[in-house]
Amino acid sequence: METEIWKSHPDIVGIEISNLGRVRTLDRVISSESGTRFLKGRVLKQWENGTGYLQVNIQIDGKQTKKLIHRLVAQTFIKNSNNWPEVNHKDNDRTNNHVDNLEFCTRSYNMKYKEKFGISNTETIGRPVFAINLNTMGVSRFRSQHEAGDKLVANKGHINEVIKGKRKQTGGFWFTNADNKAVETTRDKLGDIVASKVEKLMKRKTSNIK
After folding, report:
1. In terms of domains, do 82 and 104 share one?
2. Of 5, 12, 165, 204, whose CB neighbour count within 10 A is largest?
3. What does the pLDDT read at residue 1?
4. 124 lies in a domain?
5. Do 12 and 99 fall into the same domain?
6. Which of 77, 106, 81, 90 is closest to 4 using CA atoms?
């Protein structure tokens, strides 16, 4: 299991960012006219912002401010000597905010990268996924986690956690990447019958491409 490393954000006081893409507040003491109280730090809840990116609410100067996770991770862990303005997801998965998946870049590089290695349309960004209905064991294929979340009305952050093995299911569905490991992964998790359905969908997709 990979070690999670936490570092203080260089510009925002009172929060730490992890190399795995999580954000937490620090323990702190708050003073007021009524006295002082201790407030324990906590890992902040993330949600998808409607364009595929994960974000959190952080209190800055007494105001709640929305911050994108991938930018917080990059700012904390990656040196930006050229002062490039954007952060690229190397695998084109906007929910994968592991530090190794991020790089600072120019706007031009970011656009060309997506044209070459991924699809820039927000509806189809990311890797294709299979969704398995745990009640019916029916299998559906979606072009991305983002599309699956929209069509199934499922939390996109939770979908990503299911794929990574951090969550057993979300919204009654289990998810896996639609790659060459999908059949084996599904067989290990749900058995031969569902794996067979996944394999048929993969063959059908390959046939359509040809």
Report:
1. yes
2. 12
3. 60
4. no
5. yes
6. 77
Look at residue 150 and tell me if it is in a domain: yes
Residue-wise pLDDT for 41-84, tens only, equals 899 999 888 778 899 999 888 899 999 999 999 999 999 999 99
Say whether pTM exceeds 0.85: no
92 to each of 8, 42, 101, 120, 128, how far by Cα in Å? 26, 29, 9, 9, 11
Q: Give the per-residue pLDDT at 117.
A: 67
Q: Among the three residues 117, 144, 166, which one is the final residue of a domain in this structure?
A: 117
Residues facing 144 on adjacent strands: none
In this predicted model, what pLDDT tens digit does every residue of 181-206 receive, in sequence order?
Answer: 899 999 998 998 888 888 888 777 54
Q: Is 205 left (phi over 0), alpha (psi -120 to 50) or beta?
A: alpha
Q: Which of 117, 138, 171 is the last residue of a domain?
A: 117
Query: Among all chains, which residue has been given the structure tokens 């592991």?
Result: 98
Is residue 59 located within the same domain as residue 86?
A: yes
